[in-house]
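debug: dumping io for the single-chain case to check the tokenizer round-trip. Nothing else runs in this session.
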Amino acid sequence: MAGLTYTPAEFNTIITMLGCLCATVQAATGAYAGYKKKKISLLKTNDILFRSHRAFGGFATTLYFLGLFAGITGFITAIFFGGPPFFEISDLSFNFHVWPSFAIAVIIIWKTYISYFRKPHIYKLWKWLGAATFIAWSFNWITSAFSYYLRTIPSGPPQTHPPPTFLLPIELMWLQIILPFMIGALLGFIIVRKADKKER
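debug: decoded output
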């Protein structure tokens, strides 16, 4: 892999993509138990659902906090030393991604807190909190991808990143955006199918 380089921005975008993939798998297992089977307790009693839901949820949480740490340090650096975000404050894609991310952080951190420290409450709030978390992850990934890719265009507002090394080229941005949902849905389908056989 000599000669291949990537920027912190691309690395952070990859982290967000992987987190969205894991959140998609977790959403699939939760939707199967809660909506299809109408028995959220399956996430505890069905061994396949239990392990996969917790594992992918844990992966998503870890990846989110990695991205959050990078975002916070970048934001603080910009405040004290200048540069983005202040040079991008008039940019639509920047504003559309950065400012809603504070609300996203509240949702994901709150769900994480309840999941680890107030577990009984998670089963009371699952109908909307699980969906809200998946929507938050989806919004976070889509807006971060748009924000990153627009800054790889030479005539973009302004170009701050070189073309991607590991992500797909900008011509295939649409495919890159839907890829974590497709892979996550496929993994979720495989897991749910195995879990469903166990319930029969």
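debug: round-trip ok. The chain has a mean pLDDT of 85.
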